[in-house]
Backbone:
């Protein structure tokens, strides 16, 4: 068909077959013109290029909530398999990873009676149930002796150093902190006091007033590793401080070369969380010619599909 638009690509029907791989299904989605399914397929293509690109620093950022779900296992596997070089996240990620290392969370429902749950000492995170005994209490019991060891000979560490030291004291391959320590993947938490892990640090500070958290040490390392990278790419889940910290440090090197956003936020309110990749291009945080895709939807659905498709390809 002659067109000023260039070569037009025909929409193909998806044919689901018994025994087909996730990668095969995702490739069909890429030919279907099926709204978000097309975007999901394109995101897998971008992720594959990013991972295979020699000299590319691979960054993963996400909020804490998904660590309370089974998607935690997908992120841990990404670290195990070398799909991630750096993680930037929020304090609750540490809370949920550690709590689930020592205790269990439980399935619930969005419509449960929250007053009844509080009476029974249970907090609800979406449709996940978090008993008090599996969260704050277990963190306090286990982190206090760890902090005593970690700060026995120093009064100041950065967040990635503290987190690595905690990971070194774990013995659970299902833990993100354990695997990041094992694989040498630093975890940065710019909002370290905004969670139970940070609260435990504050409580330790009550008796150790010389304690200092070296946030500039984190920023220095992020500056050095992004500037030293030949290319940078990121899978950014959700928004907030973890998202911004990824794109912020990449603007000083001219922007990300690869960018994937997985988001449920809308852009009409002008918030960072809802801002599309094209807006980051205007700030120089993502290169104009970057391989990029935004996928709207719940990351507990989209991320496992992306990683499963990558498993087939890599």
Residues:
């Amino acid at each position: 068909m002659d067109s000023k638009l260039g070569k037009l690509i025909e929409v193909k029907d998806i044919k689901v077959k018994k025994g087909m791989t996730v990668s095969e299904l995702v490739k069909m989605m890429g030919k279907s013109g099926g709204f978000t399914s097309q975007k999901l397929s394109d995101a897998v293509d971008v992720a594959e290029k990013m991972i295979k690109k020699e000299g590319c620093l691979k960054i993963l950022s996400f909020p804490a909530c998904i660590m309370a779900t089974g998607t935690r296992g997908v992120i841990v596997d990404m670290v195990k398999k070398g799909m991630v070089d750096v993680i930037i996240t929020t304090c609750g990620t540490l809370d949920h990873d550690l709590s689930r290392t020592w205790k269990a969370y439980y399935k619930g429902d969005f419509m449960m009676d929250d007053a009844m749950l509080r009476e029974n000492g249970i907090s609800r995170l979406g449709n996940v149930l978090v008993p008090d005994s599996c969260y704050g209490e277990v963190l306090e019991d286990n982190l206090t002796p760890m902090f005593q060891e970690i700060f026995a000979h120093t009064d100041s560490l950065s967040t990635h150093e503290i987190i690595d030291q905690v990971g070194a004291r774990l013995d659970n391959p299902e833990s993100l902190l354990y695997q990041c320590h094992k694989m040498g993947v630093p975890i940065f938490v710019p909002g370290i006091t905004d969670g139970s892990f940070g609260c435990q640090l504050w409580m330790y500070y009550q008796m150790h007033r010389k304690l200092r958290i070296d946030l500039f040490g984190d920023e220095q390392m992020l500056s050095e590793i992004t500037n030293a990278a030949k290319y940078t790419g990121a899978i950014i889940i959700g928004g907030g401080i973890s998202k911004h910290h990824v794109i912020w440090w990449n603007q000083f090197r001219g922007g990300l070369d690869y960018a994937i956003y997985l988001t449920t936020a809308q852009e009409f309110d002008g918030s960072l969380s809802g801002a599309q990749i094209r807006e980051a291009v205007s700030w120089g945080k993502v290169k104009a010619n970057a391989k990029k895709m935004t996928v709207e939807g719940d990351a507990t659905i989209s991320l496992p599909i992306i990683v499963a498709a990558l498993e087939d390809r890599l």
User: Anything to note?
Assistant: The longest strand covers residues 286-296. The chain has one domain: 38-313. The radius of gyration is 21 Å. Residues 36-52 form the longest helix (17 residues).
